[in-house]
Design brief:
With 256 residues, the protein is an alpha/beta fold. The protein has eight helices and ten strands. It has a domain at 106-177. The strands form two sheets. Strands 6-7-8-3-9-10 form a six-stranded mixed beta sheet, with helices on both faces. Strands 2-1-4-5 form a four-stranded antiparallel beta sheet, covered by helices on one side. Strand 1 (21-32) and strand 2 form a beta hairpin. Bound molecules: adenosine-5'-diphosphate and magnesium ion (MG). Adenosine-5'-diphosphate binds next to strand 2 and helix 1.
């Protein structure tokens, strides 16, 4: 695809993944509500993802993808089971401990970008740095570097509404990696992008793992992510199955 793509072409190749475990998930279940109206959105999921690894989770709408990602990143507490990030068990943490983990250890990338519309590009990234304790000129310099690296050096003072979808997603990726988290969680990151911008975001996510030594978990229907993923899982009714073993056929790309 590009000259940068080398050994990661094969969809299920894991030979260049040698890092330590960053994300460990043991028998995680998430249930909403109780009694007759209870919904088991995530059902007994086990997962282990290492540094430099890209894992793709595919599954139909309502299969529990967003709920699972939210549990992995400490946005939602599991009903049972255990989640460890970088060796730290987050399962029993208080809300304020979880907030710190989310700020420092996890970068989230959302389908809808989730930028603050009233703030400029650089301010959106600075806010993330400020929450984690970096302020003033140091924060401004770091935000400038991150955005410049992502090709947004001439968009620093634009508001989100004046950016293209692809640019907005790049701002959200800059924000996600601002505090240098080991774990990146992306929920349908290309769903609102045209195919060229979607492809750029796919390659950026690959670089976060392969060049920047992070662990990347992506939930998506996008066929192009299949091409960069080390492992692919299939989620159905909250249960995770190996994509190949399950024989499931993934839906075609919705990235156009
Ligand atoms: P996906 O992202 O794969 O579309 P979700 O994780 O959003 O799936 O939802 C999985 C299931 O959990 C769905 O049946 C959904 O209705 C249910 N669900 C999600 N969030 C909540 C909630 N806050 N309260 C009750 N049910 C929920
Ligand atoms: Mg979802």
């Amino acid at each position: 695809m590009t000259e940068m793509q080398t050994s990661t072409d094969a969809p299920t190749q894991i030979s260049d993944v040698t890092g330590e475990t960053i994300l460990q998930v043991d028998n995680v279940t998430k249930r909403f509500g109780s009694g007759a109206v209870a919904v088991t959105a995530v059902d007994g999921v086990d997962l282990r993802v290492r540094r430099r690894e890209i894992v793709l989770i595919m599954g139909p709408s309502g299969s529990g993808k967003t709920t699972l990602l939210s549990v992995l990143g400490g946005i939602l507490k599991p009903t049972s089971g255990r989640v460890q990030i970088n060796g730290t068990d987050i399962t029993e943490m208080t809300e304020s401990q979880l907030t710190k983990i989310r700020q420092k250890e996890v970068g989230f990338v959302f389908q809808s970008f989730n930028l603050i519309e009233s703030l400029s590009t650089i301010e959106n990234v600075e806010v993330a740095l400020n929450f984690a304790g970096l302020t003033g000129r140091k924060a401004r310099a770091r935000a400038t570097d991150l955005l410049s690296d992502l090709g947004l050096g001439d968009r620093l003072h634009f508001k989100p509404r004046d950016l293209s979808g692809g640019e907005r997603q790049r701002v959200s990726i800059a924000r996600a990696i601002a505090n240098n988290p080991a774990l990146i969680l992306a929920d349908e990151p290309t769903a609102n992008l045209d195919s060229k911008r979607g492809q750029e975001v796919v390659l950026l996510l690959r670089d976060l793992a392969k060049q920047q030594d992070r662990c990347v978990v992506i939930v998506s229907h996008d066929r192009r992510i299949v091409d960069v993923a080390d492992r692919i899982w299939w989620l159905e009714d909250g249960r995770l199955a190996d994509h190949q073993a399950s024989g499931a056929t993934a839906p075609s790309s919705n990235g156009s």
